[in-house]
Amino acid sequence: QKEVEQDPGPLSVPEGAIVSLNCTYSNSAFQYFMWYRQYSRKGPELLMYTYSSGNKEDGRFTAQVDKSSKYISLFIRDSQPSDSATYLCAMSGAGGTSYGKLTFGQGTILTVHP
Amino acid sequence: DAGVTQSPTHLIKTRGQQVTLRCSPKSGHDTVSWYQQALGQGPQFIFQYYEEEERQRGNFPDRFSGHQFPNYSSELNVNALLLGDSALYLCASSLTAGTRTDTQYFGPGTRLTVL
Question: Which of A76, B10, B67, B77 is most enclosed, with most CB atoms within 10 A?
């Protein structure tokens, strides 16, 4: 079993829709949770960064972390064709010997069509 | 402010050859991590360099080695290339403060094809 599970999709939605992306994980040592966006043949770009449980909002993006359920989500409101990309969840432990090593999900391919 | 840069962009090698990939971290960052991303998969951690030493290593064979220079730039070397080494190799830089390493920022990657 992988430490981080993410549905690869693909997910196709109309412009303006609310998109929900999710990951589950098994390692309770994870304390930092990130969402990266990756366009085709490019490097991942950091979208959201959260510590422990709770919600964080940034413009059209909202990240949620539920550590009790080992479940994280990214919501995209008013989705745009430019949001079409692969979305990767990533996690790391807290300090100690973790040193920020990231464990990624497989990535979800999202297409927003006009 | 330049972000993370990597060279070369693309590389084609044959089985058994050796390859060296290069990375310059974002200004102000002192820690470099390398990841391998196979097609359709998420990146997998190879190793991390800090203060010119390998600080942590993922589940990769010894054919994968690296180096960090005094200016914090880094190299990834892969010996005896296999077909399965074909992937996008990503470099990520970050800043270490005490026991905590801050969030990582990725470069555009080097796409390696092994024939």
Answer: A76
Please enumerate in sequence order all residues whose Cβ is within 8 A of that of B71, keeping only pairs 6 or more positions apart, or say none. none
Give the distance from CA B80 to its chain's centroid.
17
Does the structure show a pLDDT above 60 at B75?
yes
> Is pLDDT of B65 > 70?
yes
Average pLDDT over residues A70-92: 96
> B-chain residues within 8 Å CB-CB of A97?
56
The C-alpha R_g of chain B, in whole angstroms, comes to 13
Residue A10 CA, chain-centre distance (Å), reads 15
Cβ-Cβ contacts under 8 Å, A90 against chain B: 42
Q: Which of residues 20-49 of B touch A (CB under 8 A)?
A: 31, 33, 35, 40-45, 48
Which residue type, as a one-letter code, is found at position A64? Answer: Q
Q: What is the pLDDT of residues A33-52, one digit of tens each?
A: 999 999 988 899 999 988 87
The arithmetic mean of pLDDT across residues A67-76, rounded, is 95
At position B20, the amino acid (one-letter code) is T
The residues in A 95-114 lying below 8 A from B, measured between CB atoms, are: 95-107
Cis peptide before B25 (omega within 30 of 0): no
- Give the closest of A32, A45, A99 to B56, CB-based: A99
pLDDT in tens, A84-94: 999 999 998 86
Query: pLDDT value at position B96?
Result: 84
